């Protein structure tokens, strides 16, 4: 297994590819803009998950765990990826409306994260793989400790915790007023859930978030997106059926090339410019990606591309 990251001495590939594609296919700009059905889709999932939590208020712990893994996990992960979509302002043209909708989508997740996520995620796009800036890349400690099948399995189960806490330890940002709003709204919902329906309903929400971000098919996208399985490629797309439940985040090369295009239109980018994507390695199964990550002795947290800040191009419009 590698003892260091893959290092690139050029800028990330998406900005240059975006310019090439737009020069050849300017009609792609017509795909830019918000998803008009985003609010409706988010509202339906939020209400369904909150109703499910109240329904399980007196269920057995085994039933709560089973429903959380086989049902609630899909809903909460869907909302996590809705928040990802909203971080790019792809529900409304007015950014503040997206932020409020993100706080709303955050409710069944149980832990406030939508506002903080946006801060770090936009840096991941602009400074992909940049040492000390892109907090999507695992830490040195993860790379040195997660080195075999057992530790990789534990890492996968707990990867949501690594994903959430890594930036808070390695690159903490001072919280602002919107983080406070996110926190207070979330605490109000959590307190109401416990007060009116009990701890089991609240536990169902938390369990849905936890198991949905661990050893779970939908969580495979955390690994598939940027973990290097092919040395000369740092971003990978997934073209399987779970895109329908995950805001099409699987179209990840297309998303990084065109972050202003909503998920449900990303397939059109590949249809318009297939010569830019068909030759790239892609996946059809996120579960298979998790299996490959755990079982392949050459792959681990160090299987990420990194670069120095000096290699980054400052002008990345569109």
Automatic annotation (TrEMBL):
GO cellular component: endoplasmic reticulum membrane
Signal peptide annotation: none
MF terms (GO), sorted A to Z: sphingolipid delta-4 desaturase activity
UniProt-listed Enzyme Commission number(s): 1.14.19.17
Reactions catalysed: an N-acylsphinganine + 2 Fe(II)-[cytochrome b5] + O2 + 2 H(+) = an N-acylsphing-4-enine + 2 Fe(III)-[cytochrome b5] + 2 H2O
Subcellular location: Endoplasmic reticulum membrane; Membrane
Transmembrane residue ranges: 38-57, 64-83, 145-165, 177-196
Domain annotation Sphingolipid delta4-desaturase N-terminal: ranges: 1-38
Membrane topology: Multi-pass membrane protein
Keywords: Endoplasmic reticulum, Lipid metabolism, Membrane, Oxidoreductase, Transmembrane, Transmembrane helix
Swiss-Prot/TrEMBL GO biological process terms: ceramide biosynthetic process
Pfam families: FA_desaturase, Lipid_DES
Family: Belongs to the fatty acid desaturase type 1 family. DEGS subfamily.
PANTHER family: SPHINGOLIPID DELTA 4 DESATURASE/C-4 HYDROXYLASE PROTEIN DES2 (PTHR12879), SPHINGOLIPID DELTA(4)-DESATURASE DES1 (PTHR12879:SF8)
Protein purpose: Sphingolipid-delta-4-desaturase required for the biosynthesis of delta-4-unsaturated sphingolipids and derivatives.
Name of the protein in its database record: Sphingolipid delta(4)-desaturase DES1-like
